[in-house]
Amino acid sequence: MSDIDSDIFFAPAQSDFQSIPSLASGKSVAHFARPRGADLLSRTRALFDWTEARSEHKLWPYVRSLQAAPGQAASIRLETGEVANGINLASQDYLGLSSHPAILSAAKGAIEEFGVHSAGSGALVGNTRESLALERELGDALLSEQVLLFPTGWAAGFGVVAALVRPYDHVVMDELAHACLQQGANASTQNVKRVRHLDTEAFREAVAQIRATDTQNGILVITEGVFSMDADTPDIMALQDICHEYGATLMVDVAHDFGSMGPGGVSQIAAQGMLGKVDIVMGSFSKTFASNGGFVAVKQPSVRRFIQIYGGPWMFSNALSPVQAAVVRQALRIVRSEEGDTLRAQLMAAINAYRDEVTSLGEACFGNPTPIVPMLVGQELVGRIGSRLAFDNGVIVNLAEFPVVPVGASRFRIQMMANHSEATAREGGRRVVAALKTAREIAEKQVLVRG
User: Fold this and answer.
1) Domain ranges for the chain
2) Within 13 Å of residue 109, how many CA atoms lie on the same side as its CB?
3) pLDDT for 260-305, tens place per residue?
4) pTM value > 0.85
5) How far apart, in Å, are the Cα atoms of 219 and each of 244, 311, 428?
């Protein structure tokens, strides 16, 4: 794809941010999380009024839709109906496979052979030849004998925790673990210990303290290969060693790094020499493999069977469709090929170009070079104004605020793709920095006026 010309999408922002009411500029989802009142339906109104006020003043950057396939440029429609074209820094398609000719061919072939629907759960007749082959091929890639597919990555994360952990067991998890893992833990036991992000010694201390008083029940330790809001990685070997020492079980979520990072694209687990050595690996297909769906990889057939029986999202959801399974199989072939190596190199070049451009302009990108480039915004109002200014000026970004991140720690979560040229990545970085700079100036004036 040709580079984005720096003038094609540029249009001065038309939004008026000079007199934003407090209802639209302040508060967060946290303020509405515990409504009171006997009527469960009417007490939703306060949150609705808040989102409507934000939308009216062009500060609601959610529930947007693509008008065509996600590429380095995209056309998106806001919930209000406005449409804009721009540099796309917001799609989870890290190797750009969603429009790859081989992927499209695989999808068409599966439709012709199987139709479009699995028509049953995995426990009944929802599996197909494609899905069973995908399980084997994933097992081969991950050096794991047993793989179980789920209809979504969320279902895989929630399902494996809920299946294995009982009320008398314990969960020790990184405080920034994904919401599906947090909710799976909360649904399974009250014995949940959240430890400081990436603090290996805090994990050791928590597991040791549990084992000092409870030698009879299980401990599940949960972390991620790449954390989606901070773009950083734990010491997986050290965590697995801790689990071996204290009779605990380690689970690593590789949703963001499987396919896009590591030797052969097999995640940070492979990068740290831990391929085939981690107790449980779970992940999602929705970041690199051009499909919805998720998986859990374990070593023992007994564990796989237990998750089948007690993992509600597997037992009581329709299975991954044959089209999705065929797409993921083809994506996995590309990931493990020389083409996959080339795409990962292109992706890393775009990542480094974006980070370099933003840093040279005085903004900070934190974490490591990964497909996710987090840019801390801080004050929610700055992020809300900045995301709109970016939209108006031809660059599409995702704003993360509570409950995705803590109140006061909002950020842009930039998502890079292999089909971003370095020139486009740099142009996108310039536009994002310009939007943030203007947003801070406007937000400061708002504070001064109210003060």
Assistant:
1) 23-34+53-94+338-450, 101-335
2) 12
3) 999 999 999 999 999 999 999 999 999 999 999 999 999 999 999 9
4) yes
5) 11, 18, 44
